[in-house]
Design brief:
alpha/beta; Pantoate--beta-alanine Ligase, Chain: A,domain 2; binds pantoate; ligase; Pantothenate synthetase; EC 6.3.2.1; Pantoate_ligase
């Protein structure tokens, strides 16, 4: 696997793949890799001659400096996992490489970015689209792979890709879960053991919603059932629950007639230094 620290190096690696007539799949990550990322690598590998990964803890998508500082960094282990997964090249840039001096260009889907999870983390999705657009332009892949766990992120990236006419496909990959249902996330490593034991409540809430999701059932009743599940777990502090139309991301209301996106987030651990976990999925009546 080629380990590239600069844009010039990764572009040279991709140019060599292209010169050999090979297709390229891209998986962007912030490192601290786990089996969820490996599922993305495996999908990319199945679909392309070459897989390029990126590891970049993107400062612009973090609201609080403390959250950015606390984000796990496990570069040596990440490189081993990427090599074992058969990834061909990885870009691991310094922030100044992606955000050059006097940088000022942003990419934003203003409406989609300000609702749902975006309302809890103002500026987060602007940071995501800004960095993903840059990574797309750097690597110029045929397709890029993102987890369905981040349902709203996937929608935001699809919208940006379509609106800016990026010539690549966006592929969603099913969420990988621990045996107790907790969606794998790099943030899970920050949970105290008691909070790790409590965290599957998010999946239980989604399951409660899925169990009710039949044509004609009121969306408000689904939301109430999900809230009850979280309320029964004293270690979880519900942050946000949104049930939305999958295209407009406007709140779904009334009786269920078509699939809806369900996005739930909760904080665990000390109020001064909580861990925000999210889980999201589409429910079909
Ligand atoms: O999902 C992530 O890990 C990040 O938001 C992404 C897409 C790599 C952008 O920094």
């Amino acid at each position: 696997m080629q380990i590239c620290r600069t844009i010039a190096d990764i572009r040279a690696a991709v140019a060599a793949f292209r010169a050999a007539g090979e297709s390229v799949g891209l998986v962007t990550t912030m490192g601290a890799l786990h089996e969820g990322h490996m599922a993305l690598m495996a999908e990319a590998k199945g679909g392309h001659d070459r897989v390029v990964a990126t590891i970049f803890v993107n400062p612009t998508q973090f609201g609080e400096a403390a959250d950015l500082a606390a984000y796990p960094r496990t570069e040596a282990a990440d490189i081993e996992m990427l090599e074992a997964a058969g990834v061909d090249a990885v870009l691991i840039p310094e922030p100044g490489e992606i955000y050059p001096e006097h940088d000022e260009t942003i990419v934003e889907t203003p409406r989609l970015a300000s609702i749902g999870h975006g309302a809890v983390r103002p500026g987060h999705f602007r940071g995501v689209t800004t960095v993903v657009a840059r990574l797309f332009n750097i690597v110029l892949p045929d397709a890029a792979y993102f987890g369905e766990k981040d349902y709203q992120q996937l929608a935001v990236i699809r919208r940006m890709t379509r609106d800016l006419h990026f010539p690549l496909a966006i592929r969603g990959v099913a969420t990988v879960r621990a045996p107790d249902g907790l969606a794998l996330s790099s943030r899970n490593a920050r949970l105290a053991p008691e909070d790790r034991a409590a965290a599957p409540v998010l999946k239980r809430a989604l399951d409660a919603g899925a169990a009710l999701a039949r044509p004609g059932v009121a969306v408000a009743d689904i939301a109430a059932a999900m809230r009850d599940v979280v309320a029964a777990e004293p270690r979880a502090r519900l942050e946000q629950l949104d049930i939305v139309d999958p295209n407009s991301f406007l709140p779904a209301t009334g009786p269920l007639t078509h699939p809806v996106g369900v996005m739930i987030s909760a904080r665990f651990g000390p109020a001064a230094d909580p861990v925000l976990l999210i889980d999201q999925m589409e429910l079909a009546p």
